[in-house]
Amino acid sequence: MMQEKYMEMALEEAKKAYEEDEVPIGCIIVKDDAVLAMTHNRKVHDNLATSHAEILAIKQASDKLGTWHLDDCDMYVSLEPCIMCAGAIVNARIKNVYIAADEPKGGAFGSSIDVLTAKNINHRPNIFKGIKKEESAKLLQDFFKAKRLK
What we know:
Blueprint: H1 2-19, E1 26-31, E2 34-40, H2 43-46, H3 53-65, E3 74-79, H4 83-92, E4 96-101, E5 126-129, H5 133-149
Helix pairs in contact: 1-5
């Protein structure tokens, strides 16, 4: 199944973030079975609040395609996007978003809030949840457990 393969790639990116002492979230963007972007959280490294995996992936994919319109693209992300990233996904017109684990504290595609319930937004991506959910959740739990022990 292609979705599992791509989510595994997003989880590999999340593991890179973990190794860099960043919250382990990874994201890839795919169009027509070609990977356009592969990245992970870099907030600490960049010292920038907007350096979330999804924002960085949207930038990479837009640069590669030469347009901000990512209409026929799919995003695979290891944790449910926050409101900032959900807004960027809507604005980039990403077609499908595959999410591994829910984020009850700040997920903006249904777990905490749902940006897709806004009345007049001009794009609503298709949302699919749960591919490799346990693996993503364990990675996050291990990261925060290790943080608490420091």
